[in-house]
């Protein structure tokens, strides 16, 4: 499966997320041009099926598309949260990385990032085997805020949306990605300090805030 066909499968996936299955929708979501012969090849390889005016994944093709999308969106999180690249640079590099990311490297990046569930533009990241096993490593840099000890600091990288009814309020409190927080105490409730603010948070909220752990 070369880069061209992977780009087409990625476009099929993106169009499907929009509940669109037509050739026109896939072309609009594809970063490269392709023709009828390319679709014939993917159909022959058992990656897609064409039914009336719809282009759909086969079961094998869906697995392949999911893997491509996962690599791309993990790369986007890496580029923005760790490397601090601008959005246009992020997209360009993520498109390149998705074609060459080895499975073991993919798992390591996902673990490093704390198994993110969404990419920077809010699209879901398919889970990998490392997510299912909740794999962690000792030198993990991006961790749940709940893993910080009293006195430790971390820079907010992302907050999982929809996991708690109060999470959306954190933005209004100024707890945005990039803010450096200090864990003041962890008992009887979690208490964090940042800028001129001190917040007491329950465990469910703290677990869903992910930070880049900062050295002393």
Walk me through the structure:
The protein is an alpha+beta fold and 216 residues long. The chain folds into three domains: 3-57; 70-132, Diphtheria Toxin Repressor, domain 2 (Orthogonal Bundle); 142-214, Ferrous iron transport protein A (FeoA) (SH3 type barrels, Roll), CATH 2.30.30. The protein is built from nine helices and eight strands. It has helices at 3-17, 23-29, 36-44, 59-82, 87-97, 103-112, 129-132, 169-172, 203-207, and strands spanning 48-51, 54-57, 142-144, 153-159, 180-185, 190-194, 197-201, 209-214. A six-stranded antiparallel beta sheet has the order 3-8-4-5-6-7. Strands 1-2 form a two-stranded antiparallel ribbon. Helix 1 (3-17) crosses helix 2 (23-29) and helix 1 (3-17) packs across helix 4 (59-82). The longest helix is centred in the N-terminal third of the chain and has 24 residues, at 59-82.
Question: Descriptors for this entry?
Answer:
216 residues; alpha+beta; Diphtheria Toxin Repressor, domain 2; SH3 type barrels; 3 domains; two-stranded antiparallel ribbon
Give the SSE layout:
Blueprint: H1 3-17, H2 23-29, H3 36-44, E1 48-51, E2 54-57, H4 59-82, H5 87-97, H6 103-112, H7 129-132, E3 142-144, E4 153-159, H8 169-172, E5 180-185, E6 190-194, E7 197-201, H9 203-207, E8 209-214
Antiparallel strand pairs: 1-2, 3-8, 4-5, 4-8, 5-6, 6-7
Helix pairs in contact: 1-2, 1-4, 4-5
């Amino acid at each position: 499966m070369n880069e061209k066909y992977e780009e087409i499968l990625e476009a099929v996936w993106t169009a499907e997320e929009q509940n669109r299955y037509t050739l026109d929708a896939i072309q609009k979501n594809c970063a490269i041009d392709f023709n009828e012969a390319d679709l014939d090849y993917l159909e022959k390889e058992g990656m897609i099926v064409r039914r009336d005016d719809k282009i759909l994944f086969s079961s094998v093709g869906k697995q392949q598309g999911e893997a491509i999308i996962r690599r791309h969106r993990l790369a986007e999180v890496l580029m923005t949260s760790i490397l601090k690249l601008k959005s246009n640079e992020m997209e360009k590099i993520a498109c390149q990385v998705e074609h060459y990311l080895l499975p073991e490297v993919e798992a390591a990046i996902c673990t490093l990032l704390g198994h993110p569930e969404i990419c920077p533009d809010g699209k879901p990241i398919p889970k990998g085997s490392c997510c299912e096993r909740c794999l962690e490593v000792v030198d993990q840099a991006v961790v749940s805020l709940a893993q910080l000890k009293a006195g430790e600091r971390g820079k907010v990288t992302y907050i999982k949306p929809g996991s708690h009814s109060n999470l959306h309020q954190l933005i209004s409190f100024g707890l945005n990605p990039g803010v450096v927080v200090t864990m003041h105490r962890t008992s009887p409730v979690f208490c964090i300090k940042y800028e001129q603010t001190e917040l007491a948070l329950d465990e469910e909220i703290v677990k869903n805030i992910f930070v880049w752990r900062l050295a002393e």
